[in-house]
């Protein structure tokens, strides 16, 4: 279903940016524990006590830590407000894709309308190198119709 596809995309997008798997596990149990450790898992799925136990037992993956560093800004926010806004929308979309419960997850239609993908926030920065570069890429994509 669409929820699963968007979950997968939410896992892959940060990996493309950071170069490390968001949830790097070799066993299913370890993977579930990483979800519990890092995501907002509803209380009706697991008790608060069990969540705390998992948080003490397992460390987040390198990919998750890199994603948090990316989110918090290892870049100069004051020098590049456009990049700051773009990163904020990227992180927002990823978190909406990584909702544990499929019915809470962003739909494909809503994802396509999300500001990170529509890039409407670029309107505020019409003359920057980032805007020009993205416009060039979009023009090339439009010319290469399927």
Automatic annotation (TrEMBL):
Q: What is the top-level taxon of the source organism?
A: Eukaryota
Q: Which UniProt keywords apply?
A: ATP-binding, DNA-binding, Homeobox, Kinase, Nucleotide-binding, Transferase
- Molecular-function annotations in GO: ATP binding; DNA binding; protein kinase activity
Q: Protein kinase domain location, by residue?
A: 1-117
What SUPFAM superfamilies would the database entry show?
Protein kinase-like (PK-like)
Keyword Nucleotide-binding attributed: yes
- Where are its TM segments located? none
Protein name from the UniProt record: Homeodomain-interacting protein kinase 2
Query: Which organism's genome codes for this protein?
Result: Sipha flava
Q: Which gene encodes it?
A: Hipk2_1
């Amino acid at each position: 279903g669409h929820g699963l596809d968007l979950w997968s995309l939410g896992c892959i997008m940060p990996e493309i940016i950071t170069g490390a798997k968001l949830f790097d596990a070799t066993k299913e149990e370890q993977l579930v524990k990483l979800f519990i450790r890092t995501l907002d898992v509803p209380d009706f799925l697991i008790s608060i006590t069990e969540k705390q136990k998992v948080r003490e037992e397992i460390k987040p993956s390198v990919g998750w830590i890199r994603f948090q560093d990316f989110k918090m800004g290892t870049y100069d926010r004051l020098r590049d407000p456009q990049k700051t806004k773009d990163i904020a929308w990227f992180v927002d979309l990823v978190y909406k894709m990584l909702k544990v419960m499929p019915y809470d997850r962003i739909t494909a239609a809503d994802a396509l309308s999300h500001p990170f993908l529509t890039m409407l926030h670029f309107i505020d920065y019409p003359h920057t190198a980032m805007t020009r570069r993205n416009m060039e890429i979009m023009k090339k994509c439009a010319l290469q119709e399927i």
